[in-house]
Write a structure and sequence with these properties.
Strand content: 25-35%
Distance between the termini: 17 Å
Strand order of the largest sheet: 1-4-3-2
Number of helices: 2
Mean pLDDT: 91
């Protein structure tokens, strides 16, 4: 719903390395697994940076899904998405993006 309405402008990712850089244009997709993913829009990365989960702020989470409005909530959501138990000390990438289409 938030992707289709273009309300979502931030995503949080758990990865050891930066897959993207500021200015990259990427396909925004919807789906849990590669075989059921639907491409939606091309977006341009406005900002990308790392944070410890415990240090996520309201500004970091602005534009994320409503279920990720606090660092604790984001930790729980990411734990479900990545099927791993995350701690406050885990680092995540905050990716802010703009729709190009």
């Amino acid at each position: 719903e938030y992707l289709r309405s273009r309300t979502k402008t931030t995503t949080i990712r758990l990865t050891n390395t930066a897959v993207y850089r500021k200015g990259d244009e990427v396909m925004l997709s919807l789906g849990w697994t590669e075989d059921n993913t639907v491409d939606l829009y091309i977006v341009k990365i406005r900002e990308i940076y790392r944070r410890y989960i415990k240090d996520l702020t309201e500004i970091d989470l602005e534009g994320e899904s409503p279920d990720c409005k606090s660092s604790e909530a984001a930790k729980l959501v990411l734990s479900c998405i990545y099927k791993a138990v995350l701690s406050d000390e885990d680092e995540v990438w905050v990716v802010k993006f703009d729709y190009t289409e």
